[in-house]
C-alpha cells in the first residue's frame, strides 16, 4: 500500500469526505492470480478523459497508473490470490477475500479518523456484511474511484503476467495475460498445466 500525508487546503482530515473504489482483474483467467485494487480518494475530484481499464490502451493505462502513483490526493492498496488458493476455495471466495485484504490495507489506521467514507465495489465483489458498502454492476464505468482501481489492478496484473512469461515462455502469458485465448488453449494442450495455472479451470 502507498500512503501520503499532508494538509488539505481549507479542510482538516476529519472534515474531508472520501470514497473507496474496489475492482478486480483476472477473475476469468486460466492462469495467474486474481488481483484486487482499492483506491481511496476525496469525493468530488474529477479526472478528465478517465475510463475503466478495459476501454484504455495499454499505453494509456500505464500513463494513468503513473498519475495515480504521483497524485497526493490518492492512496491505493493491492491484494492478490494465487492459483492454489483459487483452486482450494473457488474463484468467487478467493476474489472477495482479496477484496477484503485490499480494503483492510487501505483503511489501516484511518477507521477512527475519517467519517462518512463510502465504499463502492464493482460487479460481483462483496466485503463482509459488517462493512458499509455498495456493489454496483459496471461500477468501473460509473464511479471515478472504481475506474482508478480497475487501472491499478489491470496494470499490476499485466506486469506480473509478463514476468511469468519470462520465467516460462511456453504459454505466451505476455500476449494473453493468462486468459483462455486460442493461443493459450493450444499451448495448454501441448504443454499441459503449469504451476501458474488454475487446475479447477478447464479448457474445452
Question: How is this fold's topology laid out?
Answer:
Layout: E1 18-25, E2 34-42, H1 58-70, E3 75-81, H2 83-89, H3 91-107, E4 118-122, E5 134-136, H4 139-142, H5 144-167, H6 173-176, H7 182-191
Parallel strand pairs: 1-4, 4-5
Antiparallel strand pairs: 1-2, 2-3
Helix pairs in contact: 1-5, 2-3
Can you tag this structure with a few keywords?
single chain, about 200 residues, alpha/beta, Nucleotidyltransferase, domain 5, 5-stranded mixed sheet, 7 helices, about 40% helix, globular, disordered N terminus
Describe this structure in words.
With 204 residues, this protein is α/β, with parallel strands linked by helices. It has one domain (13-191): Nucleotidyltransferase, domain 5 (2-Layer Sandwich), CATH 3.30.420. The chain has 7 helices and 5 strands. It has helices at 58-70, 83-89, 91-107, 139-142, 144-167, 173-176, 182-191; strands at 18-25, 34-42, 75-81, 118-122, 134-136. The protein has a 5-stranded mixed beta sheet. The chain is globular and about 55 Å long. The N and C termini lie far apart (39 Å).
Q: In a few lines, what is going on in this structure?
A:
The chain is built from seven helices and five strands; from the N terminus they run E-E-H-E-H-H-E-E-H-H-H-H. It is globular. It has one domain (13-191): Nucleotidyltransferase, domain 5.
CATH class bucket: Alpha Beta
Tell me the β content. 15-25%
Number of strands: 5
Largest sheet: 5 strands, mixed
Rg value: 18 Å
